[in-house]
Amino acid sequence: MKLLWAFMAVLILMLQVRLWVGEGSFAQVWTLEKSIAEQREGNAELATRNERLYAEVRNLRNEQGAVEERARMNLGLIRDDETFFLVIEH
């Protein structure tokens, strides 16, 4: 009978060790859940950035004024019939 109790105690200890340490343990599951949460946050940020870029692309495809605005602001371009004035402040 003592041998059976000893065997059961060793078996319970082995199951506890597997539960707390090693593959599939609470520590590993907690670490994986934390990694998943961080990845979801990163994905949400990227999804927001992608939506802004898609909106900008749709705007550039649909409206000629948006293309002109980008050319003026980013490239410094002007139309043929416009006059460019550079104001220098002292």
How is the topology of this model organized?
Layout (H helix, E strand, L loop, with lengths): L1 H19 L5 H37 L1 H12 L15
Helix pairs in contact: 2-3
Shape: rod-shaped
Order of helices and strands: HHH
Helical content (DSSP H or I, runs of 4+)? over 70%
Number of strand segments: 0
User: What is the distance, rounded to the nearest whole angstrom, between the alpha carbons of the first and last residues?
Assistant: 100 Å
User: What number is the mean pLDDT?
Assistant: 87
Radius of gyration: 32 Å
Overall structural class, as computed from helix and strand content, comes to mainly alpha
- The percentage of residues in β strands lies in under 5%
Main sheet makeup: none
Q: What is the count of DSSP helices, taking H or I runs of 4+ residues?
A: 3
* Low-confidence segments: none
Detailed description of the structure:
By secondary structure, the chain is mostly helical. It has three helices and no strands. α2 crosses α3.
Labels describing this entry:
mainly alpha, 90 residues, 3 helices, single chain
Could you give a short description of this structure?
By secondary structure, this protein is mostly helical. The chain has helices at 2-20, 26-62, 64-75.
